[in-house]
Design a protein that fits this description.
By secondary structure, the protein is α/β, with parallel strands linked by helices. It has one domain. It has 5 helices and 8 strands, in the order βαβαββαβββαβα. The strands form 3 sheets. A 4-stranded parallel sheet has the order 2-1-5-8, with helices on both faces. It has a two-stranded antiparallel sheet with strand order 3-4. A hairpin with a 7-residue loop joins strand 6 and strand 7. Helix 3 runs parallel beside helix 4. It starts with 7 loop residues before the first strand and ends in a 5-residue tail after the last helix. The structure holds iron/sulfur cluster. The site of iron/sulfur cluster has 12 residues, from helix 2. Iron/sulfur cluster binds next to helix 2.
Length: about 160
């Protein structure tokens, strides 16, 4: 296999990295396979922002990334998302498969800031910044196989 830049960025937790707020991964076989073949790079914007795992769960409220006790993590989220986008753009990634509903990685739907599992339309910060750069984003709950075919060709069946 020739060395090549990955075409996709993926949430590191979907690739099996235990970087989530609860100290766990959320592995998805198709994403793990993309990383194995060198077609995707796992990125965790929250870890890049210096946050540990496990950490307090955070939701967006009035443009602030807050935990349930009112702790404000906005700066770490901003720093991490900007670093993560910088990495994705350096690679020339054309697409990203990100973890649904995360305050960083969620795409099209996030939690509403009340910590009551209520969902609203919106993107996590990393997702939003990627979209601003023209990167196509989906979550692991969408048609991942078709997305991979579009961005990486047909070798992943
Ligand atoms: S920030 Fe994204 S990659 Fe990191 S644990 Fe949360 S959902 Fe996964």
């Amino acid at each position: 296999m020739k060395p090549h830049f990955p075409m996709l960025a993926v949430s590191a937790c979907l690739a099996g990295v235990a970087c989530r707020y609860n100290g766990e991964a959320y592995p998805v076989a198709a994403v793990e396979e993309l990383v194995r073949t060198g077609d995707a790079l796992p990125i965790c914007p929250e870890r890049l922002g210096g946050l540990p795992s496990p950490r307090n769960p955070v939701e967006w409220r009035a443009e602030r990334a807050l935990d349930e006790q009112g702790g404000d993590w906005t700066q770490a989220f901003l720093v991490g998302a900007r670093k993560a986008v910088g990495i994705a753009m350096t690679l020339g990634a054309t697409g990203a498969i990100l973890k649904a509903r995360s305050p960083s990685c969620g795409c099209g739907c996030i939690y509403d800031g009340s910590f009551s599992h209520r969902r609203i339309a919106g993107d996590g910060l990393f997702c939003r910044l990627l979209k601003e750069q023209g990167v196509q984003v989906i979550t692991e709950e969408e048609d991942v196989a078709a997305f991979i075919r579009r961005h990486c060709g047909g070798g992943h069946e």
